[in-house]
């Protein structure tokens, strides 16, 4: 596995890309800012969007409603810069 080649491959993608990562992932640490900067340099805001998901570990698709909403918005929104993640409303207990 060559991480540099993998990052280069991501940068060469021409279609819109949203990259998610759990902020509390114990297996693969959250990328440092220089990695996000490398992936997004010279890219417009509608080509690549990194989204760290807070309080999520290694399986965001199983751990977070936010991930499900993000995927839905990605599929429905032509411009990824228009995607807005909002915390799910929850009823407060009395």
What do you see in this structure?
This protein is of the alpha+beta class. The chain has a domain at 1-54. It is 36% helix and 13% strand. The protein has helices at 3-12, 33-40, 60-63, 65-76; strands spanning 17-22, 48-53. A two-stranded parallel ribbon has the order 1-2.
Summarize the structure.
This protein is an alpha+beta fold and 94 residues long. The chain is built from 4 helices and 2 strands, in the order αβαβαα. A two-stranded parallel sheet has the order 1-2.
Write the element-wise H/E pattern from the N-terminal end onward.
Answer: HEHEHH
Beta-strand residue fraction: 5-15%
Distance between the termini: 52 Å
Helix content: 25-40%
Count of individual helical segments: 4
Number of strands: 2
* Overall average residue pLDDT: 88
Strand order in the largest sheet: 1-2
Q: Decide which structural class fits the backbone.
A: alpha+beta
Shape: globular
Rg, nearest Å = 15 Å
For this entry, give a set of tags.
about 90 residues; two-stranded parallel ribbon
Write the layout of secondary structure elements.
Layout: H1 3-12, E1 17-22, H2 33-40, E2 48-53, H3 60-63, H4 65-76
Parallel strand pairs: 1-2
């Amino acid at each position: 596995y060559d991480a540099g080649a993998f990052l280069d491959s991501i940068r060469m993608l021409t279609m819109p890309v949203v990259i998610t990562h759990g902020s509390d992932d114990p297996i693969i640490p959250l990328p440092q800012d220089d990695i996000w900067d490398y992936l997004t340099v010279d890219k417009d805001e509608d080509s690549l969007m990194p989204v760290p998901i807070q309080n999520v570990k290694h399986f965001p698709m199983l751990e977070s409603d936010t991930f499900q909403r993000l995927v839905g918005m990605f599929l429905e929104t032509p411009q990824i810069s228009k995607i807005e993640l909002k915390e799910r409303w929850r009823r407060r207990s009395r």
